[in-house]
Amino acid sequence: MQAKGNNSLKKHQLKGDLMMLFVTMLWGSSYLFMKMGINTIPEFNLVGLRFVLAFIVSAAVFYKRLKQIDTTIIKYGALLGFFLFGTLSTVTIGMNDTSVSNAGFIFSLTIVFVPLLMAIFFKKIPDAKTIFGISIALIGIGLLTLNNGLNLNKGDFLITLGAIFYALYIIVTDKVTKHVDSINLGIVQLGFAGLFGFTFSFIFENPVMPSTTEAWIAVLALGIFCSAIGFIGQTIAQQYTTPTRTGLIFSLEPVFAALFGFVFVGEVLSAKGYLGAALILIGIISTKIDFKKLGFGKQYSEMDI
Asked: Which of 247, 267, 249 is CA-nearest to residue 258?
């Protein structure tokens, strides 16, 4: 019975990991769309449009479930919506002062902040496989970043702050999705993130609607693909995997960002950049290896993270 339970757990973790991989690919494209959007739309305004659209699309798809929303879901949704707003507003503003590639690389520091914050708040130390994977992935991210001659300017600082917000979002999501309907929670959090965005926009900006084809493409892509599908997908996926594994898979985002940059705007990485991307992949794959079977010592339980 224990073996069946372990096999079922592995299948669920694989399901969650694959879903997070798809979500990460969508987010790899988001930096291009944010850069397009802020050319004509104020930053908080863009965040508000993005998440309100995502909320409308998600609510329309899952409208039959909305009657199950209760005060607990609203409370958790407001909390997660705040972290989403904090994440995307800092990143969107930071995009004014840094490049698409640089933003993707710096934001991947989330994989460092997740286990560090888990250790600080919950005294949960990552296992040997995870530590090894994080170390390799960090070296890869470093190579990718150094390829661009990283300097911590205002934009880079805001992207780093966004990574901290997102690490908190991952951890909090892991805690609250165990107690409520994940789809309804995903929908409500999008609504609150949009509400926070428009509230700040009315206070600090002059809100506008998209006025160009490029702006509409940016808003629609960010709202439907990168937000509605992306964040609800993550909320569901985190029922089956752990915060640290989520952070590690998320480290693939700069790889996808570089791929989209190459396909759509002709960006090409240096040899260091491609080496960094390869190391990130190795870091992710290493978390799947059973070191006990390979004779490298004790196998740690992933669910201990």
From this structure: 267
Instruction: Tell me if 174 sits within 8 A of 216, measured CB to CB.
Output: no
pLDDT in tens, 214-249: 999 999 999 999 988 887 787 778 777 777 677 678
Tokens read off for 1: 């019975």
The SS3 assignment for 206 reads: coil
3-state secondary structure 64-109: HHHHHCCHHHHHHHHHHHHHHHHHHHHHHHHHHHCCHHHHHHHHCC
What's the rounded Cα separation, in Å, for the pair 191 and 299?
A: 42
Which one is predicted more confidently, 268 or 89?
Answer: 89
Q: What is the pLDDT of residues 114-130, one digit of tens each?
A: 888 888 888 777 777 77
Instruction: Look at residue 118 and give its three-state secondary structure.
Output: helix
pTM metric for this prediction = 0.78
Residues 50, 198 contacting (CB under 8 angstroms): no
* Closest among 83, 81, 78, 77 to 184, alpha carbons compared: 77
